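Please decode residue identities from the backbone states below.
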């Protein structure tokens, strides 16, 4: 029998240079989340490495691994030991010269429940992801877990209402957005504040427009750059918004954190009865969404 609610855990931490150290930090915090009652836990984007996309560096491709790689093996062990469903974002090597920014959903026994490849790939100062990543070709992901049905999108995906809507239509009760976002060294505090506010508002809007929970899981800490690029100060601030867009949990900017929140199915049902956006969609009128712009 399905329970009326389940607890999710968002794991926020700063990345070290060493992948094994990052994986051990992740495993330790996953255990903490489980001990605090979480049944579904999510790690930040590219959870085993520093954010290498700050510059073009061919040597960074060596950080990638396949689905059978040692990093995912370590996280499968962490899921088993903690007895949780675990969302693990990673740098995926699909074939020579073909890489993705990906995430897997691991079951409490360490098995593979779902696989997602980031759909939207940015190319901005300090975020040179098009150099490294091929756009995802698996579509959106919504997958049943022992706790409930969850969706996974990644970072830049969080700015696109189409991705959130498709994930909601696939039945997700909560959308996880593993993230790596922060302030470039050249940006002013005001610019950073404006961007952080927009980042939070747009995701709270997805929660409202789709009548579900949204969980953004960011990294934290300053990561310097090499090769002439800029460093990035990741602003943390992981949060969970409920189906009315209310912030029900929020982390600080700097601290290593396990953030907990409850996904309440009655809340989803109540909000969707009051604001039945899915009922009132005019799907026959949306063909224009398949065009890049205009007619």
């Amino acid at each position: 029998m399905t329970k009326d609610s389940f607890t999710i855990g968002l794991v926020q931490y700063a990345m070290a240079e060493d992948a094994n150290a990052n994986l051990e930090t992740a495993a330790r915090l996953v255990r903490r989340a489980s001990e605090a009652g979480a049944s579904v836990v999510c790690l930040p984007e590219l959870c085993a490495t520093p954010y290498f996309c700050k510059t073009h560096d061919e040597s960074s491709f060596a950080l990638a691994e396949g689905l059978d790689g040692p990093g995912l093996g370590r996280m499968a062990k962490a899921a088993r030991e903690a007895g949780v469903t675990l969302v693990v974002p990673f740098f995926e090597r699909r074939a020579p010269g073909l890489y993705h920014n990906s995430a897997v959903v691991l079951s409490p026994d360490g098995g593979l429940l779902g696989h997602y490849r980031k759909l939207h790939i940015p190319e901005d100062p300090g975020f040179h992801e098009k150099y490294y990543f091929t756009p995802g070709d698996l579509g959106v992901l919504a997958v049943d877990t022992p706790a409930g049905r969850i969706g996974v999108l990644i970072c830049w995906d969080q700015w696109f209402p189409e991705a959130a809507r498709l994930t909601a239509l696939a039945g997700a009760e909560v959308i996880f957005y593993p993230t790596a976002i922060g302030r470039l060294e050249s940006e002013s505090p005001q610019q950073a504040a404006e961007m952080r506010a927009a980042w939070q508002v747009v995701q709270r809007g997805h929660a409202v427009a789709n009548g579900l929970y949204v969980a953004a899981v960011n990294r934290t800490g300053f990561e310097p750059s090499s090769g002439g690029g800029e460093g990035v100060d990741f602003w943390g601030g992981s949060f969970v918004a409920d189906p009315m867009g209310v912030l029900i949990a929020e982390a600080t900017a700097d601290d290593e954190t396990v953030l907990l929140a409850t996904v309440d199915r009655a809340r989803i049902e109540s909000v969707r009865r009051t604001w039945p956006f899915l009922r009132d969609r005019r799907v026959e009128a949306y063909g224009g969404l398949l065009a890049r712009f205009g007619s």
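Observation: The domain at 5-280 is CATH 3.60.110.10 (Nitrilase/N-carbamoyl-D-aminoacid amidohydrolase).
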